[in-house]
Specification:
Protein name: ParD-like antitoxin of type II toxin-antitoxin system
Helix content: 55-70%
Number of helices: 5
InterPro entries: ParD-like
Radius of gyration: 19 Å
Number of domains: 3
Order of helices and strands: HHHHHEE
Distance between the termini: 47 Å
Structural class: mainly alpha
Pfam families: ParD_like
Shape: extended
Organism: Paremcibacter congregatus
Strand content: under 5%
Largest sheet: 2 strands, antiparallel
Amino acid sequence: MGQSIKLADDIVKDVRFEAKLLRRSVAKQAEHWLRIGQAIEQSPSFDYTRIKAALAGKFDADNLSIEEGVIFDEKIFSALEETSDAERVFFEKRQKAGLGVGEDEEGNLIYK
């Protein structure tokens, strides 16, 4: 019996896109990716504790296997995309003062 789960909108968007490309249902695409993730985690060349140690700076990320490195990179990039409450407050203050709050793809300051 199937069960509903909540997923972030960006993940659902990616699943829908890939499902359409591969002519799968959204549910079958999500199951496929879940099984791939499960297989990677159960692989003898994959150790999630090593990834956690590398993320904490207690293990040299250069010593991770290729599979571990993929997950490590994903976690790092995901963390870089997240904005903390302190960062939001900082940029709100800059925006109210009419100062730049970032750069666009061409390197121009963004004020909004």
